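Hi there. Long-time user, first ticket. I'm pasting a complex I've been working with (about 966 residues overall). I'd like to know whether the download I got is complete or cut off, because the file seemed smaller than I expected. Thanks.
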Amino acid sequence: MKRALPMVFVFAWMVASPRAYAQNAPTIFIQNATIFTVTQGNIEHGGILIKDGKIAAVGTDLKAPEGAMIIDGTGQFVIPGIIDCHSHIAVDGSVNEGGPAVSSMANIADVLNPDDISIYDDLAGGVTVANVLHGSANPIGGQTIVIKLRWGKPASELPFQGAVPGIKFALGENPKRSGFTPPPGIPDRYPATRLGVEEVIRQAFIEATEYKKQWDDYNTRKTAGEQGLVAPRRNEQLEPLVEVMEGKRYVHSHCYRADEILMLMRVAKEFGFKVRTFQHVLEGYKVADEIAASGAGGSTFSDWWGYKVEAYDAIPYNAALMTERGVVVSINSDDAEEARQLNQEAAKSMKYGGMSANDALKMITINPAIQLGIDKRVGSIEVGKDADLVIYNHNPLSVYAVAQKTLIDGQIYFDRQRDIAGRAALDKEKQGLLDKEKKAAEEKKEEEKKAGEKPAAKPDKKKKPEQKKEPPQSDSVGAIAGGAL
Amino acid sequence: MNRRLTAQFRVRSTRLKFLVATTAASLSLLAMSFVFSARGEGGEPRYFAITHARIVPVSGPVIEDGTVVVAKGLIESVGTSVTISPEAWVIEGKGLTVYPGLIDAGTTVGLAEENGTDSNRAKGGASAPPVLGPEGRPGTSPWRVVADEIKTDDKRIETWRSAGFTTTLTVPEGGILPGQAAVLDLAGNRAGDYVVRVNATVPVSFKPVGGFFGFPDSLMGTIAYVRQVYDDTNWYAQAEPAYQANPTKSERPAYDRTEVVLSEAAKRNEIVMLPANNSVQILRGLRLADEWKLRAVLYGGQQGYEVAAALAAKKMPVLVSLKWPERAKDADPEAEQTLRELRFRDRAPGTPAAFTKAGVKFGFYSDGLPGPKDILKNTKKAIDAGLSPDAALRAFTLDSADILGLSDRLGSIAPGKIANLVVTDGDIFNEKTKVKHVFVDGRWFQIHEEATPPEKPGDKKPSDDGDTNARRYSGVEGAGR
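Hi, the file is complete. Here it is re-exported in full:
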């Protein structure tokens, strides 16, 4: 369900300059709360001082500075903002560029949609950072981006500044298009097998290596002062792959089966890069040691399995088992709705696998921060980090927990009380607009009726040329179903 | 033939009947018509004067009782005391208002209605194998030039013209880079007479053309594709001259029609039209125009009320679609409508007023609206939402001309400008107002009223004999308003 939710709530905090969030953030003091810092233990009856968008102090003996906005945390729980390592929110148009098997020219950064209501919905579930990924229709998919859920800000202010951009890879059934039959006359897209998926990735990196060499040669000759050189043609498809080999772009690979996980690690080694995260990685528990040794992270589901053949060997103990073998594990949503209860998803590993509460929390905070290379900035409640926080009314690992406030950069982007208080006004506005449209439509009908009663036009009057109605200009197309998982 | 005799013909009353005083004059008219049919000798009337009219030049203050003199397709003079050459046909303009001809800055008028490219159809059709990457140039035919595809028998030409639209930016459709738009004046004996500017703009669409089986099938893929075309064009613009200068040094660059045509367009600094209707698309358009260093114009612009300041800061001109958003006619009545959609539909007509306030230069375009009636009706909505009629007129005339880089010849009533004029019996945005005369390139069109009484046998018009002029002078009854 999509609701029209209040942009008005954040208008008060809207600032003119794109880089001015921190400077314009109010000084906030959260007092007398239970604080789960994630990296530095839990604090009962503690306070958090937020200044200039950063966490300025955390402890039990803090006092609110003069003029600070006080948030009473009595009976409340504060955790770091939740980081969703696999999201498809805030995308204008399809999340899949499914035409070519290598669609690395497509870039999520080009199509960020700050008006997607899922941003606000996920904020209401405590999410502050999302790794927005291309879909899984291709062995090598599009470029990806890490955003902060700054609802109400334009697209240019969503990206997490300083986060390393990524690229989506996908292995298995989705890129080989299992169960996908094109209409007669249209050939199946290559590849159609797991072997083919490997070949496509290897071939792409062979081409990217050659492309990089062309540019390196050109730059060397140019530096040497050679005249009349023509630069090589830029290739939007291969450039991101060169960045992968240069370590400037992270690979987030969708995968299920153990064999293909090992395959991608071998291919990566061959071309000198590392897979940053294995996404879904439902058989990761079978090759946890290998994943840990490669330095890759695992971003998985809590307890979702059996929804396709390659998911039959999935088990809800996967996260706990991988963690036990030293893999940095996160729990992701892959879904705008599920992202709203990632806290509960993480808690499931306390039942399946006997994880500690803190380890469970890590899987939605500091661990995805590590996976995305942003752990110096977010993922725990520590002095100097971004004030991305969620305040719950119950222990966030309990099913009773409901997020009350969500802060990003020290600004309140979601406030449950404010939301509830504002609903009546929004409903009224909406009803008003609906009534206005209804009235206009009735008037138009009336007018047309009247026009119809007029004496008939002169017989010799030329018939108006009939025009074909053109479809409205729109760039948005609905997301194509399938291929997201 | 003594041209001076023609001066005896005066169009006097608002009824537009020629008062033919003498038989001698009638005879001379017939004789003249005979001469008109000899093309190349300037046989048709080329000198006109509209006297005692209210003149709205747009580029200057309104002249309450003035004269516009038209000579050989251009405006010769305008003012309260101007010399009327003896050759001029005089229209008594008392009670009439003269405006510059209106510009519809985005339409398919003058093109065949089915104007998707062949290449696009072949690539997008079910029978052809899908394009799998940028090298397949999906939906790309920038070499298609509207000026070469004008359909002079498009009925809409007359409909638009009769409502006061003398000029269009006629835009090709079908694909991501469907071709090059032309600025047309809506009159002429041959297609070539219509063309004001052949290479007016390069329109871009971000609508995916790949279906589910070809590239690109997403918005982001389409943008990526256009970016690759941009890269390729820039590369070709460097590689080709470098090769020609020194063919022994490197392999020759392959011939690619898209690269050749677009690099020529870039050399001309041709306007590139980027699609941008809602606020997200508008901000994206601003970013892409910067990234690609384009001489860009955004089209759509309907949610501009949210981002007018950003547009003004970048001095980005916008062509605003007059097809205001409406709930789809076949929409599910039970479907939940978001507040955002409802707000957009409610506020979109306020965009032009917001643009005026913020200092964003904009023109209007009909965007597939069925006819001038709807164009004017929807303009009225913008006026009701706060746009001043003066600003609305500017958007239809001088500002559109300026955005298209043609304000030196179009968009206002000033000496030297192309004589595109619309003469009405009242305020042009009043729905009761009737268009009386239209001039396109100094060619006179009489617009009939619905209630024109039958002509007397003696009331011959210049058109009655010249077959090439017949259609032009016959006018359209009740069209447009």
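A couple of notes from our side: The mean pLDDT of chain B is 85. Residues 219-245 of chain B form the longest helix (27 residues).
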